[in-house]
Give the backbone structure.
Amino acid sequence: MRKFTLLLLAAALLGACANSEQSKYQTTTQETIDALTTSASFDMPKVPVPSFPDKTFNVKDYGADPTGIELATPAIQKAIDECTAAGGGTVIIPAGLYITGPITMKSNVRLYTEPNSFILFSHDLDLYEIYDEWFEGIPTKRCTSPINARGAENIAITGHGTFNGNGDWWRPLKKSKMTENQWKKHLKEKGGIVENNIWYPDSGSVLAQTYCVDQNVPVITDDALWIKVKSFLRPVMLHFVDCKQILLEGVTFENSPAWNLHPMCCENLILRNVNVRNPWYSQNGDGVDIESCKNVVIADCSFDVGDDAICMKSGKDKPGRDRGIPTENVVVDNCVVYHGHGGFVCGSEMSGGIKNVEVRNNLYIGTDVGLRFKSTRGRGGVVENIYINGVNMVNIPNEGLLFDLFYGGKGAGEETEEELAARMNAEAPEVSEETPAFRNIVIENVTGTNIKRAIYFNGLPEMKIQNVTLRNITINGKEGAIFRQTDGLIIDNVNITAEQGEPWVLAPTVENVTKK
């Protein structure tokens, strides 16, 4: 009996040691995620947390140089490849500076970064192949993403390290965004070309602008020309496509060439305790863009970026509608945004639909807009069943809450009144599959102070913003709340103060308003 008891004790101790070893590499538990998902305002499916065999593969054992002199790509990739071939485990990046080209994640691999590990992606264009991809919601060509995966399952990037995309070598830069000394330093370090007070990395980047008819996607059919404009094909920093059971935890992603984190058509995705940073001036420097994904948890993360921070997307116009995969079942909890064009954003590429999203306990400090819903004619798609509960915001230079169905592709506050008026005054088309719809949205327990304009609803006359509930909201704005083209608005305990003008403006195009 005593021998059996000792065996049980030994087994328990071994199990405890194994659990302790695993928790060193990953702290997010299934219990933690279940607590976040079961309290959602809709029927949220269970989101499984990735788990891995107790095997380790240290990149230094494969020859990775921790001094940043030699390129570490072959060693890191070999460690990942051998880990997945062995049935999975943990690839360890120890403390040090590693210069690398793109790395590809594989199934059943956890990439763990030790404290004081810094992974810097080279700006050498020769390391990045051009391939068929989607960007800004439509098919095009882009350079290989620094961190990429396709069709992988049960993958994670965890730990304490920093991944830096070296984006300043890729992104065009406006002189107006810099001080004189910063501008001179950038030109001295990066070289490149300046046209119309905009810096470009090379002549190919300038040339590509002339082929863009829709935002940042050039229309090119000649393979040789694609190669010539390669520097313009800025990759997103992390791009996972058709992947399942993903965990990003603890690490920092910063200075991306374009969007920072871009999971597309993925399922069961967890972001927890992740820091996402881009310079405030970074062109297309989004934080995370969840595109056509389902079953997503974003919790305890911080964002300080150059474009939209936490953004839901699902493709653009006909290509997005043809794909037909919505973003659905998303919980965003306890996140902080320090800078961005919007704190939480739906759109503008939402042609496949966005539904069942809950945002709670968020703080936005100095974002251009607080809560931002945007689209335009031609998109199609439906945004519905959105629940926002417990958002605090301060120092917002534009709207605290914005519904803009006449979005023109520019940042908040950058478009002229004449440009907006031209679109708003255009003849309203018949409702069709190209008509975007926003409906069934509840926004409650929101506070805001030092906001330029408290609330602005600007729906389409042919498809008004429908069935929005505003409850327990207090916003102190320089300007008040304006509602246009809205149907089925419930206003319950909403307090708006305006330093100038009327605190409330309900246009004649607003129907079926209930005030409590």
